[in-house]
Amino acid sequence: MAEPTLVTVPDIAEALGTDVLAVRHLISDGKLLAVRSEDGVLRVPAEFVAHGAVVKRLTGVLTLLRDGGWTDDEALAWLFTDDDSLPGCPAVALQEDRGTEVTRRAQALAW
């Protein structure tokens, strides 16, 4: 499994050109996935942001997985697990604008 680069909410806000409150809304609305680190700080994989925006199709993939009963921890693990058929991990495929392939796999897994 590839390890995500976990960064703080303020770092994500800067990358998106917005404020911390807007990023927290993205997280609470399910458009971004965040985890609490051991020190209690909320962190988001840096791989989920590219070119000043949330990576295309990430929100849809997260919705599919959650609707299929996946926890955020399970979704995070899947997004960073290598898949030889992509190749690479789904998170990287999303960054490389190969979201259709990732969405298909998420649909198959979720149901």
Q: How would you describe this structure to a colleague?
A:
The protein has helices spanning 9-16, 20-28, 58-67, 72-79, 90-95, 99-110; strands at residues 6-8, 35-36, 42-45, 49-50, 53-54. With 111 residues, the protein is mainly α. The protein has one domain (6-110). It starts with 5 loop residues before the first strand and ends with a helix. The mean pLDDT is 94.
Low-confidence stretches: none
Tell me what portion of residues adopts beta-strand conformation. 5-15%
Distance between the termini: 23 Å
Number of beta-strand segments: 5
Nearest-integer average pLDDT? 94
Task: Give a brief outline of the structure.
The protein is built from six helices and five strands, in the order E-H-H-E-E-E-E-H-H-H-H. It is mainly alpha-helical and 111 residues long. The strands form two sheets. The protein has a three-stranded antiparallel beta sheet.
Topology, element by element:
Elements: E1 6-8, H1 9-16, H2 20-28, E2 35-36, E3 42-45, E4 49-50, E5 53-54, H3 58-67, H4 72-79, H5 90-95, H6 99-110
Helix pairs in contact: 1-2, 3-6
Features:
globular, 6 helices, three-stranded antiparallel sheet, 111 residues, 5 strands, two-stranded antiparallel ribbon, mainly alpha
